[in-house]
Design brief:
Blueprint lengths: L20 E2 L8 E2 L1 H13 L3 H13 L1 H9 L7 E2 L2 E2 L3
Antiparallel strand pairs: 1-2, 3-4
Length: about 90
């Protein structure tokens, strides 16, 4: 299946899903690849300015492990300071 935004082939994910993501509100009734979903569709849904998308994705990748620990209850919110563990 082809991404309706970039025209690249949509890859099959780990779970075997080959139909990509819902591309609304960028394209009505379209399917998009994961990259376009992250960098075009999700920001459009959340009202982000396109220039901020790259920074947002970088932040998400930088603190992914910390977020996992937080949601598992291994660290507490009070121990987080702008994405870094408090060391006092």
């Amino acid at each position: 299946m082809e991404c309706c935004l970039c025209k690249e082939e949509i890859e099959v994910n780990e779970a075997g899903w080959a139909e990509g993501h819902n591309a609304e509100p960028v394209v009505v009734e379209g399917r998009c690849c994961t990259k376009c979903n992250y960098f075009k569709v999700l920001p459009a849904r959340m009202g982000f300015h396109p220039s901020k998308v790259k920074d947002m994705m970088f932040d998400l990748m930088m603190y992914e492990e910390e977020a996992k620990k937080f949601f598992k209850g291994e660290i507490e919110e009070k121990d987080l300071v702008y994405g870094k563990l408090r060391k006092d």
